[in-house]
Amino acid sequence: MEAMEDDSLDVKDDHNHNHCASSSGKVRTYHSSQLSDVTTVSQPVCAPVSGGEPGTRRGKQRSGTTGGSKFMDSDSGSENSEVSETDCTVPPAAAEGKFTLDSTSKFLLNAMAVEDYRKNHWPNLEKAIDRLLVQNPTDHISVSYAQIYSYIYKCVCQQHSELLYNDLTSKITTHLQQVSTHLQASPPENFIENFNVALTQYTASLQCIVPVFMYLNKFYIESKLNRDLREDLMKLFADHVAEKHVNTLMPLLIEAHSMPFQVQPSTMASVVKGLYSLRPEWAQLAPALFSGFIPQINPPAVESLLSDYAAHDQKLQMELSMNGFPRGDQSRKRASDDS
Fold this sequence. Notes:
The protein is mainly α. Helices cover 64% and strands 0% of the residues. It contains 13 helices and no strands. Helix 10 packs across helix 11. The radius of gyration is 42 Å and the shape is elongated.
C-alpha cells in the first residue's frame, strides 16, 4: 500500500503542473477536454473592439473551441497570436476614437485626391479637349494622345469617373452653345454650308475624343449608365445645335433640293444624312427630301401606282430640262433591235 501511495504521489503533478487531488486523496486524471475547459477559463476575456471586425474574432474563438486552435490549445499555454494586446487592453472608448480617426483620414485622402484632380488632371484634359473641338478635319494638331490617355486612366483608377464624365459633358455643352450662337448669326444663303461645317467638325473631333476616353466609356458609362460615350456626345449636338435650328434649316433644304446644284450635292447629302442620324423622326418633316438621300424612307412601292411613279419621273425630267440640264447626246444611243 505504501508503494502504491508513493506512485500516486508521483503522478499527482500533470504535464501542466496542475496539482489536482480529490477529497478522497486519490489522484483525479484530467482528460484533454477537461483541460481545455480549465484553460479557457484561465484566458483573459477580450471585449470586442468597436469598429473592428467583431464577427471575425468571434468566429475564431468558436473555431478554437471545437477545432483546438492555438487560442484554445491547453498544451500551448499562450493566447491566440492573431489577437493583439491592444485589443485586450484598449478600452472601448479609445477604440471608437481610433475608428473615427480612420474615417477622417479616408475623407481627407479623398479630398486631397479630388483637389489633385482639379489642379492637375482636369486642366490638362480641358486644354486638350479645347484643341480637339476647334480643329478642322484637314488640320493636324500636335496633341499627346498618350498623355491624355494616361490622365484619364488615373482618373478612372482613382474613382473620379463620375466627376470626369460630368466635366467632359459640361465642357462640350458649353462649346456647342457657342456653335449654336454662331449659326444663329449666319445669313440664310450660307446657313446650310455653315451647319454642315459645324456638324462635320464636331464629328471629326469625336473620332479623337471617344477613343482616348475608352477607359471612362468602358468602366463607367457602359457598365454603370448602360450607355455609350459617342451616342451621349452626339445627343448633345442634337439637343444644343440641331434641334434649335431645325425649323430654320428644313425650309432651306427643301428649297435647295427643288433647285438642283444650288447647294453642292455632297453638302446636301451630308446635312440630310446627319440630321437623320441625330433624330430619325425628323425625316417625317420632309419625306420627299429625305427619301432622296436615305433609302426606305417612303413606303414600299405598290403595283397599282406604277403609272403615278412614271408620271412623277417624267415631270422631274422635264423640270431638269427646263432648268438647263439636257438629257445628253442621244445620237450615240445604241439602236434597238427592231430598227
